[in-house]
Amino acid sequence: MSEIGQNISEVLQSLPKEVRLVAVSKYHPAEDIKEAYECGHRIFGESHEQELIKKVDLLPKDIVWHFIGHLQTNKVKYIAPFISMIEAVDTFKLLKEINRQAEKCGRTIDVLLELHIAEEATKYGFSLDACREMLEMGEWKELAYVRICGLMMMASFTDDEEQIRKEFTIASNFFDEIKEKYFADAPYFKERSWGMSDDYMIATQCNSTIVRVGTRIFGKRNY
């Protein structure tokens, strides 16, 4: 087995069965993704639409692509025909544009709402109050071509495991709150995407269902 395949195998073995792995392949060449694909992995995460489009053309069509980065509204049209999930929806404006482009493509796109819980100001996402306000307004219910499947967030970049655990727990509790209030009858609202290379094991203890791991699989990024 290749080194990348071995790395994926080790990460998968460390995960609970109910947690899915998104192999974060941004900044890594298509050959690396092909190597992981040949070892049986199918879910990959990218965060730049131009890089993603090039890879889609080069790689097998049964790959499940997650867009995990900050997405500008004017870029949605480029990925709408094929993207499986957009994980980082941070404004209602973006949600509406995804719906518009999905309708043009005749498909429904799964999305996650991104929360800003971490202490760094540079991170994107809804504050908890802004997310509550958006859901309470109810306009999202009229968007027939997007399906809100859960939440996504990134913990603070810190070695303080208690801080990381606290932030994941806030996200988990918030998921329970809005699941009960807005999505009780929506079985597809079930995803909690938190946990990356350095903290995914903590995330799995805080009810994560999706972890996004790159460095542990592909090594340092090739910028």
Concise summary:
40% of the residues lie in helices and 18% in strands. The protein is α/β, with parallel strands linked by helices and 223 residues long. The longest helix is centred in the last third of the chain and has 22 residues, at 161-182.
What can you see in these coordinates?
The model has no long low-confidence stretch (mean pLDDT 96). This protein has helices at residues 3-14, 30-38, 49-58, 76-79, 92-105, 128-137, 161-182, 200-204, 215-218, and strands spanning 20-24, 43-46, 64-67, 85-89, 109-115, 146-153, 191-193, 210-213. The longest helix is centred in the C-terminal third of the chain and has 22 residues, at 161-182. It has nine helices and eight strands. The chain has an eight-stranded parallel beta sheet. With 223 residues, it is of the alpha/beta class. It is globular, with a radius of gyration of 17 Å.
Q: What order do the helices and strands come in, and which of them pair?
A:
Layout lengths: L2 H12 L5 E5 L5 H9 L4 E4 L2 H10 L5 E4 L8 H4 L5 E5 L2 H14 L3 E7 L12 H10 L8 E8 L7 H22 L8 E3 L6 H5 L5 E4 L1 H4 L5
Parallel strand pairs: 1-2, 1-8, 2-3, 3-4, 4-5, 5-6, 6-7
Global geometry: globular
* Secondary-structure content class: alpha/beta
Question: What percent of the residues sit in helical stretches (DSSP H or I)?
Answer: 40-55%
Low-confidence stretches: none
Helix and strand pattern:
HEHEHEHEHEHEHEHEH
Number of helices: 9
Largest sheet: 8 strands, parallel
Number of strands: 8
Distance between the termini: 26 Å
- Strand proportion, as a percent range, falls in 15-25%
Alpha-carbon Rg, integer: 17 Å
Spatial strand order of the main sheet: 7-6-5-4-3-2-1-8
